[in-house]
Amino acid sequence: MPADWPGLVFRSDYLGDTAVWRALADLLEETFGIDITALDRLGGPDPTSVPFAWFDAAGTCIANISVFSLPLVMNSTFVRAAGLQSGAVQPSHRGQGLFRDVMEAALAHCDAEGFEAVALLTDKPDLYARLGFRTLEQHRFVGTAPVGGRVSPVRRLDIGSEADIALLSRLLDGRRPVSDRFAPLRQREMFLFNASLMPDLRLDLMEEHDAVIAWQAGEDGGYELLDIVGAGIPALADVLASLRVAPSRVTVHFAPDHLGWDGEAVADEGDMVLMLRAAPNLRPDEPFALSPMAEF
């Protein structure tokens, strides 16, 4: 339990309280410009999420960090991991140690629950390195498009359709990890939320495979494969043939070990980095990337 702060109340595990959920949403919208209440129409927030936060007497969320279950496959092995997200502090209360307090409470919770690893995404890696987190270098996989794939029927999905959200939810709950190098076993809420934020995203159901392809058209005739959701992973050649695209090049945003295709691993130079708090030997052995659809 964090130390007392005059005029503030510490709360945890409050997502069942509509007013408090709205207060967290207000903090995150003010800080990041993202409205997480969009989750309400997508099935609700992650039920595994446990927030740690300070509130003032008016019910304003002053500081927050949330822990959620993020089971992973890493190096073909199951890892019981947690993720950290929704970390923010009201500008009027920054620099006072409130974020340190909620982080310490969250990490103590992770340790008590026996998580083998804790992951987060940040543009301030030095802040978290002091708490035992290490940066994991991510890659994109780039190469020429395979040809000769088998064509199967495809149907475009609509993230605004309740029926298509239900279909996606079913596939996400029973999906095969998109890579054995590093991939979440579940991340339904973030996939749906990220999809709702990406106007150029295309979600195509390969009906014979019962798999959804999340992709975007790239620059200069390129093709960007962001994720594949299904009990099986179709070969990249079959994906391109079914979508009837013949790109000049392909960029895959996850390790392509199930695609029947190899691309050149190119280091990601983006501002956001993936960090892991775990035993020193627990890290991917080969180049990988967290799918953009799983970002949190």
Automatic annotation (TrEMBL):
CDD domains: NAT_SF. This is GNAT family N-acetyltransferase. It is an enzyme of class 2 (transferase). GO terms for molecular function: acyltransferase activity. It comes from the Bacteria. InterPro entries: Acyl_CoA_acyltransferase (IPR016181), GNAT_dom (IPR000182). It holds the Pfam family Acetyltransf_9. Residues 8-158 form the N-acetyltransferase domain. SUPFAM superfamilies: Acyl-CoA N-acyltransferases (Nat). Keywords: Acyltransferase, Transferase. Its EC number is 2.3.1.-.
